[in-house]
Amino acid sequence: MVLELQKPRPIWQIMFSTHHTDVGLLYLIMSIAFLFLGGALALLIRAELFLPGSQLIADSMTFNRIFTVHGTTLIFLFLLPSASAVGNYFVPIMVRYKDMAYPKLNAIAFWMIPPGGALIWLGFADFTWYATPPYSIISAPGPAADMWIFGLKILGISSVLGAINFVVTILKCKHPDMSIGQVPLLAWSFLSSSLIVLVAIPTFAAALLMLLTDRLGVTGFFNPAMGGDPIAYAHLFWFTFHPEVYVLVIPAIGMMYEIIPRFSRRPIFSKGSGIFAFVLLSIVGFSSWAHHMYATGMTFTEKTVFMIGTLAAVPASGMHVFNFIATMWNSRIKFATPMMWAIGGIALFFSAGAGGVANAAMPLDFTTHDTYWVVGHFHLFVMGTIAFGTIGYIYYMFPYVTGRLYNETMGKVHFVLSFIGTILVFFTQHVLGLYGMPRRIFDYPAIPEWIAMNQIATVGAMIIGVSMVIFLINLIHSSAKGKPADIHDPFNLGGQYYYPFESKNPHH
Amino acid sequence: MAGHSTWPEWIYVGVIVALMFWVGAEAWNVERLVEHVPADAEVIKVTGAQWYWQFEHEDGTKEVGTLHVEAGKAYKFEIHSIDVNHSFNIHDYVVLMDAIPGRVNTVWFAPDKAGEHDIQCREYCGLIHYNMRGKLVVEEPST
Question: Which residues of B touch A366 (CB under 8 A)?
Fold first, then answer.
């Protein structure tokens, strides 16, 4: 029996292990640590914006550094690694293989993240997570900017190595008796998102090098003073990072595909359409990158093409939502904590998607672009959908990892507070955007509507902060002192827990 | 799940596709009309710089920070930047266009009545981005 925390091992045995569950555990702990670091920065931002004028933060340079590191941290050091944590734990088991295809590569991919994260945090750059040129070339102070570039470079390589590992594990190491159609949807989600990573990331890797040599003054790819064009960077960046949205959201949907049928006590409505929608989304995800760039002076035809590419992603996302609702329809749902997170995540996924349709429609985009509407919109994805799915799944896998039960009441309180907080912050920010408040501003004029909505958002953010402290206490306390779980059916669903501990791969 | 019908899902997908067609067609049509610049639009050159806006009218008059225009006339902004990216924004009139060094972007508008509106920068441009603000003053027609 290999239950990680019930059978204590020295920490270095876990740290230097290449076993997939150990690497998964490392990913999980590190990503939760960065969730709290990045979240603390979010609370600082919200506290600063509670009123016009300077509150907590002395100057705009510090503020700009804070939101840059906030975004970079939560995308690259929380969302991506937390998905890798789940994938490491469950993909080998789901395809019935003893480990990841390349265990050492897997450990290397993990261990590249802490140095990358350290570079980002020690540098504390100020040029936004988009590293906007020519600002990042001619104006951003070094060495912070250079450290950010190297940090992202390392994290990008780590993503590519992880993605190669998932693709090979799923396609080449799955049990010979298992057809690709029998691979569970969660593993399918990792297959789709890993393939996107392999196609998308190299573009940004190139852009980062060009940005670095531009900063060194030896090239001028994105520097107009040397004949370059900042818009070229925008294309390279969004060609990677629009699909990256799907890299983040697809595993979270995959996690919901595990949770929802289990707690509805019924098989998924249509596995075929789930697989179809994953594959479709990972292809059409590449046809919409320049919808981030309508206001850069694109021609009418270009905008039309990218609007169509963006709207094409909607039916695939809608198919997932339909699948979830049809599975839950008339079923005996048990509203345990993981299920509540998954359902909340679906509701917010729908809201985020609806807002996205408004952004994609060309004339409306000129109202919403670069305002708080956009901040609210993508946070409904990253927080409302991806983090909700992931946190639900962390509760779901908790008995499997620790052999203990988390505290159900605290889990539910965590959900309710987070759900209310998320709506208060990010729905309000949509409206704030319609009132015209730009993103990334340290201070704002005393317009009454702006003040009111910033205050609602700040209160919401504090509520989320409190709920996350409850989460942390629950995790730490329950993993040491929680009730021992009935490992065959920890959630009392009247069937078999999908992953009995016997299915764990022995250490080797 | 084998043995049950999935036709409701296909109807649902059909409805979404139809909705997206409608959104796309409407957006296409509105944008086409919005982008049609009137032939008599007066040109105003807009220059974004860290961290202020400068305007140059057709008759050569220059203004910094505050822009004066007349109600009932059409204006075409030719927007560029001398340092980093900015975004020229009059939110009340849904005027938004990036100011990018090395490029000239255009956008037009026609103020309909006298009043004052905020001009702001909507693309991150560094230290004083938050206060790169200006004023649009729409005056009564002179003739």
Answer: 94, 96
What residues make up the domain containing A137? 11-503
Question: Taking residues A250-257, what's their average pLDDT?
Answer: 96
Q: Which of chain A's residues have a Cβ under 8 Å away from the Cβ of B103?
A: 229, 231, 297
What average pLDDT does range A416-420 have in this prediction?
A: 98
Q: Does B133 touch chain A (CB under 8 A)?
A: yes
- For residue B60, give how far its alpha carbon lies from the nearest alpha carbon of chain A (Å): 25
Q: What's the total number of domains in chain A?
A: 1
Q: Tell me, yes or no, whether B60 and B29 share the same domain.
A: no
CB B75 within 8 A of CB B40: no
Give the domain extent around B74.
Answer: 42-139
User: Same domain, yes or no, for B82 and B113?
Assistant: yes
- Give the total number of structural domains in chain B: 2
Of A128, A273, A369, the CB nearest to B6: A273
Arithmetic mean of pLDDT over chain A: 93
Between CA A71 and CA A75 the distance in angstroms is 6
Q: How many CB pairs under 8 A join A and B?
A: 159
Interface of B with A in 63-102 (CB under 8 A): 83-85, 87, 89, 91-92, 94, 96-98, 100-102
The backbone torsions φ and ψ at residue A226, rounded to the nearest 5 degrees and listed phi first, read -115, 20
Tell me the shortest Cα–Cα distance from A489 to chain B, in angstroms: 23
| Candidate ranges A225-229, A456-460, B36-40; pick with highest mean pLDDT | A456-460
Alpha-carbon torsion (A236, A241, A242, A246), positive or negative:
positive
Structural domain contains residue A352:
yes
* Cα separation of the two ends of chain B: 75
Residue A3 lies in a domain: no
For A300, name the nearest residue in chain B, comparing CA atoms only: B32
Contact of A398 with A477, CB cutoff 8 Å: no
Question: Looking at the DSSP assignment, which residues form a beta bridge with residue B42?
Answer: B75
Nearest chain B residue to A272 by CA distance is: B1
Residue A348 tokens, joined: 């917010």
Q: Could you tell me if residue A6 is inside a domain? A: no
CATH (domain of A119)? 1.20.210.10
> Do residues B7 and B76 both lie within one domain?
no
ipTM of the complex: 0.94
Contact B51, A442 (CB under 8 A): no
User: What CATH code is carried by the domain that includes residue B76?
Assistant: 2.60.40.420
pTM > 0.90: yes
A218, part of any domain: yes
